[in-house]
């Protein structure tokens, strides 16, 4: 089966890998200035919740930089016959937490150049995400246009932690640039410290396991906002990918959005369709971590209510603590071909459709 | 069928009804001081989202104070054969938004005395909620003990908008008092301005219909927090009622809480059961506004996953814009007797079980 992993983290051992890709004052600041830890740490505002086990699988222990790829190849790509891995970086999305958007943008630029230079040539299965710092949408749009025509770049990526809901017109220059380059806009769980708004209502909460369970709240806010603000009327072909934010909450939010829109649609006269219709045409959800009810039929009814057959994209989240391998994806068996691979081809348009599939 | 409405709003035309129940400086401040509008307004920090239709049904137009009861009797209680109406006030829960907790407490005390004096004697179907200002838990606990033994008081009520998640030990004096008086602790959608934390992640959002759809986020945070902080280990018989916050999101949150707890339970060694088990034994959800999917089977699978037969309480939300009457409660028919009435008797223990039901 053709398998696309839409959330494959290309780790580094040390953020010093970015140094050759920086210059001027921000290189000086990155090398000499304050960081979130000792040399090698990536500067970002940290969440107030600390993972009691750390984020990485304990069987993935790179010592040198090249181990990161070697381990990924051995424990993930080759082991599970992954055909396409969308690289999502790791710490760089945390640039969204910095007050200085110029510094955040410089870090993102350095990461993008490093990723294109170091990671993409390593493996023909790799396709890249441009990471941008959304706190200055004009700078972010410049970065999207600088690299967006690279043939192996397939999406623009930010953290789901943000200063305001992503439908806000403040962010529209980013979607303008995405639409121009034909790239989807993706948000990945993260960026919950620093300048970003509290990621959950009535927060902050206290423990990591408690908090991680409710972090999808920001994604709910972004989904509602992108739809209500008319982003998909302005850019009808724009796809938004929501990564690692859970999926089973989607129907409950769409049901409320649809009911409220029907009653109060005069607030947003630019919309032409129900919120759930914009979801189905424009938003895609990555599977990991897929919810795990006692009775899988309860999950499957939920996935059916969100047209999961067409809206879900398989993701492994390699090499994180709650990594899902391909064999553990408990979705309806008839959906596997689409969710594991084909749906991704409609989102990441630069990835060629394999000949075997085109012929089917 | 025996029907309990667990969210029936006793309106006033003007907050000046509270004046006879206040004294001293805070009466002076209430009469002469700044309010959220002209004389008759209730002082509170207002949400940044304004309802484009107003909150009330447009066919409920009280002119004099006594019209509020007359209209409720005509359009709701008598029309739908309601046996028990749990009065939930209306604006008073907004006292939670005030920076001055002493003033907030004085307003709640006045409301509680007014409610007991004016509303409870009007109709034998009425049972009351003590509203407290949670921003000073010690004052709130005093108020619970002052009135908690009144034979027709059946719960303690706050807004779901709050300064921090309700499991926080900061709030435990409230649960101590609830447990002592044998009363459930209820939170109702509201209290989203002033000192309270943003009610949604990555907020604020923009439009009313958009925002209303995602306001349950704070309830998710409170549910996770009450469970994780061990409130139901400290007070095993405490019931928590979550009112008007939607229900279909509950399984998605419980599935993530259970999965994370299984992996990282060492963070909270005081817990003895899965989060979903605490939910089923200690938390109850009011139905209104019940989600309305195109295919009701999708909703019913969701409700089954949260043991809705035993965890749901019927609510009308009279006289609000999105009022649900008894006939429109689209739950599995076999559950109606429990959800419409019997489940409430296990929560509101002072309401006598009708003889006809006891005999069944």
From TrEMBL, chains A, B:
Keywords: Lyase, Plasmid. Residues 44-350 form the Amidohydrolase-related domain. InterPro entries: ACMSD, Amidohydro-rel, Metal_Hydrolase. Pfam families: Amidohydro_2 (PF04909). Gene3D superfamilies: Metal-dependent hydrolases. This is Amidohydrolase family protein. The lineage of its organism: Bacteria, Pseudomonadati, Pseudomonadota, Alphaproteobacteria, Hyphomicrobiales.
